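Response to reviewer comment R2.3. The reviewers asked that we include at least one raw input/output pair. We reproduce the pair for Suppressor of IKBKE 1 here without editing.
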Amino acid sequence: ELWVSLEEHQDALELIMSKYRKQMLQLLEGRKGEDAEPVLKVHQANSVEIESQIDRICEMGEVMRKAVQVDDDQFFKVQEKLAQLELENKELRELLSISKESFEVEREDLPD
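Raw output as returned:
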């Protein structure tokens, strides 16, 4: 769920940036006679900030992916241990059953 959320945020940021770029191009085309340098500086500053946010989101996604992997590994280890214990329990019950049967047979064979 976290991974899907991360991808949705990245898609939203990409959509916002594309709309922002379109608006900036329209603004620059409309202001051809004016100095576009301040607008470009603001655009560059915003781009840098958004890129850093995207990088942070990607890092968080990587951390989440590793956490999920660790959690999955732990789950599989627990499942494996549980299967081993169930098998051992079954074998011990069989041994106990054989031992009980042997004891009962010996009791029956003993004279009163």
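The chain has one domain: 1-28+43-109. The first helix runs from residue 2 to 30. Further pairs are available on request from the corresponding author.
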